[in-house]
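Example 3.2
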Amino acid sequence: MDVKNLADVPAFTTKDGSEIRELLAHRNSAIRNQSLAEARLAPGASTAPHYHRRTEEIYYITHGHGEMQIGDEHRAVKPGDAIAIEPGAVHTIANTGEEELRLLCCCAPAYEHDDTVLVDDIS
């Protein structure tokens, strides 16, 4: 049985600049086709605009407030919001609040640095 506690999982920085803690993925569990991680952004921080060639993502906001941008669409996000991000969709998320923004990131297939493509401009 694979059970990981967030407090025991080491953090690392993804290619888009967010700090994540990968709870379950092929690197640390029996899971093979997806991954679950918690991402954190400090107040005023944002991820670099990027997309994933193969991976679809779900972001689920657990703490803080932010602004999600997918393509040219912007939306304020808060705890309880779930965001669908299709493969190939250029996206970024910014922390617009005064506390740390925390979100769960579900990726299928699992997150990989080499599937992340940074872009200069989201517009």
